Amino acid sequence: MAGSLLARAAVALTLIFAPLAAIAEADEFEIGLVTKVDEAGGKIFIKHGPLRKFEMEGMTMAFRAADPKMLKAVKPGDKVRFVPDRIDGQFTVTKIEKAR
């Protein structure tokens, strides 16, 4: 009886929190405009709005590319969705895709 109750509670919690996790994942993307790609330096310069994650105002700044393939995936003028993070003290793009 107790096992059945725990199982039902676990299912209920999954049904409640799974959609919230999907929303949180979608919210990690920010919108920006690529202004420069520095392949030699491994950086992408992005003009972005406020970054909620870092309580940062909108600006143009350089982000280290977590994966060198990102440097070839975008070019100046591309509107992008990206996920910024701070890794080893450096602002880094961990995911990037062209916005539609």
Overview features:
100 residues, alpha+beta, five-stranded mixed β-barrel, 30% helix
DSSP strand tally: 5
Structural category is alpha+beta
| Biggest sheet overview | 5 strands, mixed, barrel
Compute the average pLDDT: 84
Strand order of the largest sheet: 1-2-3-5-4
Q: What would you report as the Rg, rounded to the nearest angstrom?
A: 18 Å
| Unreliable spans | 20-26
Distance between the termini: 51 Å
Q: What share of residues is helical?
A: 25-40%
What is the number of helices?
A: 2
Description:
Mean pLDDT is about 85; it is low at about 20-25. A five-stranded mixed barrel has the order 1-2-3-5-4. It is elongated. It has about 100 residues and is an alpha+beta fold. The relative contact order is 0.18. It is built from two helices and five strands.
Summarize the structure.
The protein is an alpha+beta fold and 100 residues long.
Q: Layout of SSEs?
A:
Layout: H1 2-27, E1 30-38, E2 43-48, E3 59-65, H2 70-73, E4 79-87, E5 90-98
Parallel strand pairs: 3-5
Antiparallel strand pairs: 1-2, 1-4, 2-3, 4-5
